[in-house]
Amino acid sequence: MLEPAPVRLPDPAIADVVALTRAICDIPSVSGDERALADAVEALLRSAPHLEVLRDGDTVLARTRLGRAQRVVIAGHLDTVPIQGNLPTQLRTAPDGGPLLWGRGTVDMKGGVAVALYLAMTLPEPGKDVTWVFYDHEEVEADLNGLGRVVRTHPEWLAADFAVLGEPTAGGIEGGCNGTLRADIRTHGTTAHSARAWKGHNAIHDAAEVLHRLARYTPAEVDVDGLVYREGLNAVAISGGIAGNMIPDECVVTVNYRFAPSATPEQAFAHVQEVFDSFDVTLVDAAAGARPGLNHPAAVDFLQAVTAVTGGVAGPKYGWTDVARFTELGIPAVNFGPGDPMLAHADDEQVAVDEISTCTRALAAWLSTPVTSGHDDAQDGMERR
């Protein structure tokens, strides 16, 4: 059987960043199925003589080696959540009359990927050395994350003085990110025939108290270094039952806790255990958040350069992003990209065309500005950490 022909992306030398965004979005890449898009990204990057390219699984990296005083990482994930009848993309008209691009991935986060890929191809001599990272498996379990894999397999490629995640921020700058954990709240009962229910104990009925506590729960708003992070504790799954004529002996409510970056995962889990005291609580997975770090000199430089173009302001990132991973590596990082984060994962994802273009201009302006101190050698950067 013949292999399908590889999908190709338009050349940024002759196509604008919006056309590139649409082409990237129209290559389906639900988590675990990023291969075709990664192949297309790799092929485009390898056509640029100013870039050194590395492929690791379905993660593609490229970098300049110009001997600049500072190296920065621009990263974005290639995968999306499942498609819900929202591909191929469509060009639509916004209520204000401006054009927008509608479809899966336009917000989270192929708009940011397109901005990065466009600049990787069209800025052969930036004022800073740049490492571009396009990675897989961000929307699923943390142990599958392509960026985390690169940390283990090619850490020297991530050596940098500063990092930017192209996550959607509506063109503003979002510092840090919330931490996240999932926990199973388990109730226990006794099986019996449903015609003689009094002989058993129904575990699903006991889950009503779990849901009641969630309904009464008031999430906190926590000030961390001048930015206010909203927390959240929500049921995201429930399972139980054996057969249609049996009393269930177990029910599991899975909860997701989004906690402020001032708390550790251990502290966050302790809070969940406190909320559900008297229940059987098991930690499923957890990832630490990241403090804003907007007072770091590299972050200040980025904010000044970008906001001069966008007019945006800094705010908190409510979701978890790989800013936390860079923070663990000792690299200050921020979130910056097109798309309203409130539309991330929504079936009606859509991004204003002007926002894609503005983010591209802002990032280009920052990257084109040289710095006078720092390190240009990737290995030196890794040793510094």
From TrEMBL:
<dbReference type="InterPro" id="IPR010174">
    <property type="entry name" value="Succinyl-DAP_deSuclase_DapE"/>
</dbReference>
<feature type="domain" description="Peptidase M20 dimerisation">
    <location>
        <begin position="179"/>
        <end position="278"/>
    </location>
</feature>
<dbReference type="InterPro" id="IPR011650">
    <property type="entry name" value="Peptidase_M20_dimer"/>
</dbReference>
<protein>
    <recommendedName>
        <fullName>Succinyl-diaminopimelate desuccinylase</fullName>
        <ecNumber>3.5.1.18</ecNumber>
    </recommendedName>
</protein>
<keyword id="KW-0479">Metal-binding</keyword>
<dbReference type="InterPro" id="IPR050072">
    <property type="entry name" value="Peptidase_M20A"/>
</dbReference>
<dbReference type="Pfam" id="PF07687">
    <property type="entry name" value="M20_dimer"/>
</dbReference>
<dbReference type="GO" id="GO:0009014">
    <property type="term" value="F:succinyl-diaminopimelate desuccinylase activity"/>
</dbReference>
<dbReference type="InterPro" id="IPR002933">
    <property type="entry name" value="Peptidase_M20"/>
</dbReference>
<dbReference type="Pfam" id="PF01546">
    <property type="entry name" value="Peptidase_M20"/>
</dbReference>
<keyword id="KW-0378">Hydrolase</keyword>
<dbReference type="InterPro" id="IPR036264">
    <property type="entry name" value="Bact_exopeptidase_dim_dom"/>
</dbReference>
